[in-house]
Every structure is written in C-alpha cells, then in structure tokens.
Amino acid sequence: MEKRRQGLCAYHRWGYAEYAVADAGSVLPVPDGIDLIDAAGLAEATFTAWTNVVDTGRLQSGESLLIHGGTSGIGSLAIQIFAARGHYISPRRQ
Question: pLDDT, tens digit, for every residue of 48-77?
C-alpha cells in the first residue's frame, strides 16, 4: 500500500493550487494520525517560521529570540523549533 503524501506547491509569484503534479521527492509524507488539512498547515507554519527567523532574520547560534504572538500557530511552532535548537526564547514581560 502506498503511503499518503502531501506537499506544499509554491508557484511563481507565490500562487497555490488545491491539486498539483509533483515529483515524489518534492513532497512531504503525511505523518500517521494527522489529516491532510492539518499536515498542510504544519508544513506552511514551519516554512513561515523558518523563513522569517533564519533566512530573513539571520538568527545565529547562541542568539536569543523574542516571539510576539507566541500563542498563534506560527508563533507556538517557532518557539518549539528554536527552543529545541538551543536558542533562548524570551518570556513575556508583565
């Protein structure tokens, strides 16, 4: 039985499609127990967090990170990703 596969396909100028043809090496496997919609959102949130913090923000090893909106999907995922990578995540100040 072939595993379910899902991928986020970005076209020129950032258009998205509900269906697309892609090489199997260009898509991500859907983890067991996660439906296709949640899996697509996970890929999008991960890409957004990584692109903004690493590619655009140039977060370096040993640097701290302050995340505004840490209770949002992207914010909470960013906290988990960068805390796991050893970055200090600044707590909210009262």
Answer: 899 989 999 999 988 888 888 888 888 999
Tokens of 75: 């914010």
Of residues 58 and 90, the one with the higher pLDDT is 58
The count of C-alpha atoms lying within 13 angstroms of the C-alpha of 72, restricted to the half-sphere facing its C-beta, is 11
For residues 12-27, give the mean pLDDT: 68
CA angle 87, 58, 10 (to 5 degrees): 110
CA distance from start to end of the chain:
53
Task: Check: CB of residue 53 under 8 Å from CB of residue 59.
Answer: yes
Is 64 within 8 Å of 87 (Cβ atoms)? yes
